């Protein structure tokens, strides 16, 4: 009889422990607006989800939604309003909302997304976060895809004159401003529409990173890619979280989340983009596409065009209290440190 009672008590205790563990588990809903096979989708769904669960000891789990409840341009508001707990945003898709984040979009910054992403996160924490541009959500990490290139189906753009009047797809942000400064006519449309835009003659070329090859059939359309050191432009992204959900986490859960966000997330997101770029270049090469390096003359024309944009940007954010020129110089210095392995 004693054994039976003891066994019953032991079973009850195990049951209580199991139920308690189940109750303690916090599920975070995550979504993204990239296609299912895109490297950002797979990063959040697989590698990062595993990191979150492992670092939290099972306290946190990711539930990735197969279909996002909002589009790219609506993601910030969707996270703020609690449609999902966590997602990522492209700052360029939110016209007028973000100004300081253009710091990571300038040309000639870095050839690797991992390098720029890590440097950007460090500068954001040190110099930009205090401006609270992401008010309404919690910014968990800054990151960038690979550098942008100048792509076209018919001819290589060899200098500023060749761009005059050309209709170029630009993702918004600094790429849009640069296209305008170069005399082109920028068209801000999603990358997923580029094949149809080119095929229908709506645009003549595009600013895009190499990761687009192999996902949107663009390797069948693009015949010329012009590259510049550090990119013609870069794009700014952020992993963001619903504020109420973040505040509801326990201290232990927040500490675990901190270990897989910030610079840790910036590094793996950048690395995923670099891997995707490498695969994209391979697909493009197999299709016989040509890659051209921007001439020294073209690079100097680009530098001359971007200098006023840097000054305009610094003036436009003066009211934030951030020394924009110092922050940009700090980003370039941080990039050098990351490249040196620091």
TrEMBL record:
<dbReference type="GO" id="GO:0055085">
    <property type="term" value="P:transmembrane transport"/>
</dbReference>
<feature type="signal peptide">
    <location>
        <begin position="1"/>
        <end position="24"/>
    </location>
</feature>
<dbReference type="InterPro" id="IPR038404">
    <property type="entry name" value="TRAP_DctP_sf"/>
</dbReference>
<dbReference type="Pfam" id="PF03480">
    <property type="entry name" value="DctP"/>
</dbReference>
<dbReference type="InterPro" id="IPR018389">
    <property type="entry name" value="DctP_fam"/>
</dbReference>
<keyword id="KW-0732">Signal</keyword>
<protein>
    <submittedName>
        <fullName>ABC transporter substrate-binding protein</fullName>
    </submittedName>
</protein>
